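Entry 12.
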Amino acid sequence: MVKSAGYNVGFLILAAMLGAGYAYAVVALGVFWFCVPETKTGVNRNASPQKNLAKS
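Predicted 3D structure (tokens):
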């Protein structure tokens, strides 16, 4: 690619790939932060669902 298009084009393509990877990582972090229950602040991490089933 660099041999046929030149160093500037090769550098720009690598920079675009890095930017796309960074954007993907930010989106993935947002999904985990808002959608995974363990990351929510109101969740009691010490509570076990098995304890509640044993009482009923």
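Annotation: The radius of gyration is 23 Å. Residues 30 and 43 are 18 Å apart (CA to CA).
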